[in-house]
Amino acid sequence: MEKKPFVTKEKLEEIAAKYPTPFHLYDEKGIRENARRMNQAFSWNKGFREYFAVKATPNPVLMKILKEEGCGVDCSSYTELMLSDACGFGGADIMFSSNDTPPEDFRLAKKLGAIINLDDLTHVEFLNEVAGIPETICCRYNPGGTFRTANGIMDNPGEAKYGMTYGQMAEAYRKLGQLGAKRFGIHAFLASNTQTEEYYPELARILFELAVKLRDKTGADIRFVNLSGGVGIPYTPDGEPVDILKVGEGVKEAFRRVLEPAGMGDVAVFTELGRFMLGPYGCLVTRAVHEKHTYKDYIGVDACAANLMRPAMYGAYHHITVMGKEDAPCDHKYDVTGGLCENNDKFAIDRMLPKIDKGDLLVLHDTGAHGFSMGYNYNGKLRSAEILLKEDGSFELIRRAETPEDYFATLDFLNLFG
Ligand SMILES: *Cc1c(COP(=O)(O)O)cnc(C)c1O
């Protein structure tokens, strides 16, 4: 599928005149339409809820848009809980799916009434000591080995630090019951950025079968199964987006075959998607500022890996559109680089693009999730602004860019600058 930016060059120049590049731009219309499709895909399940994974894009304006579309939030840290609380999420609107969890995080989750998802059997005792056991509680499962569908291996849960074995799940349920838990959930995240309609249905089958087994073995009242994150998006132009309606149908099929015959037709299905909810509806907008020709041809832009880490960290592909040159032939081979003193600070390597001139606006696609949020301050680089392109075509600053004062804020007691 051809990748087209959700914004015109004229609009981008208008935005950039007010808020200088680089910035992350988000598409309200796309976000809302996708969230509605998501809810439609699972409308067959009475208790269905998507808990947006806050770590993907922790911006309060975007979180409130998702809240208006019926989503809850999935948090994994103290500050994510604080942010969710401030956005008006509370109680069962919040899943707390953390690991290696500090005591104060559990305390805040308990205080907010969040649904706590335990990553390990030892966390039963730990939670009991630091915050007490709530009546509704969830445990994270790891089946070990490799996770495969009919089309091959998807990932290696056996190598992942998350979750409990079957025996530990049963033991955790028993202990939690003794400590006062009354309602139980199951959670698992077995593969990331999956590109097929089969991931959730296969995961659902495994977790639904586990739910029946755990109920039979421990008598636990299982109220929900959380399929977590992992539904992917196509970053490359040749990929096809996952058809979420088909995914919903596949999960429904597993639900009908496994849970309903076991008398568990009232179990709610939860999801915790981040990438699928926002990934395609954000982009990083940057300007070409330098052009360099040595052993290769380089375009230096005003963004760097501090604004988008995925290419440097994973070698991830992010499609680039040179605005205004959409129909020009891609007859130049460039490395598109940022200014970090790290040779991996490259948004693209040997990428065929139209001839780029200084001043051109470049759009890096699909940065709406795990984009801005993975940013960092290496080399003293500052985090960019985030801007929302609203449904009516107007735009709004939803996070200002960092200033040097922000960067030095943690040294304020030294009074370095007088
Ligand atoms: C990161 C994460 C998610 C979201 O993952 P995506 O790949 O963005 O869908 C959901 N749940 C948990 C526990 C996570 O750690």
From TrEMBL:
CDD domains: PLPDE_III_DapDC. It comes from the Bacteria. Keywords: Decarboxylase, Lyase, Pyridoxal phosphate. Pfam families: Orn_Arg_deC_N, Orn_DAP_Arg_deC. Its cofactor is pyridoxal 5'-phosphate. Residues 31-277 form the Orn/DAP/Arg decarboxylase 2 N-terminal domain. Residues 280-368 form the Orn/DAP/Arg decarboxylase 2 C-terminal domain. InterPro entries: Ala_racemase/Decarboxylase_C, DAP_deCOOHase_LysA, De-COase2_C, De-COase2_N, Orn/DAP/Arg_de-COase, PLP-binding_barrel. The keyword Lyase applies. Belongs to the Orn/Lys/Arg decarboxylase class-II family. PANTHER family: DIAMINOPIMELATE DECARBOXYLASE (PTHR43727), GROUP IV DECARBOXYLASE (PTHR43727:SF2). This is Diaminopimelate decarboxylase. It comes from Christensenella tenuis.
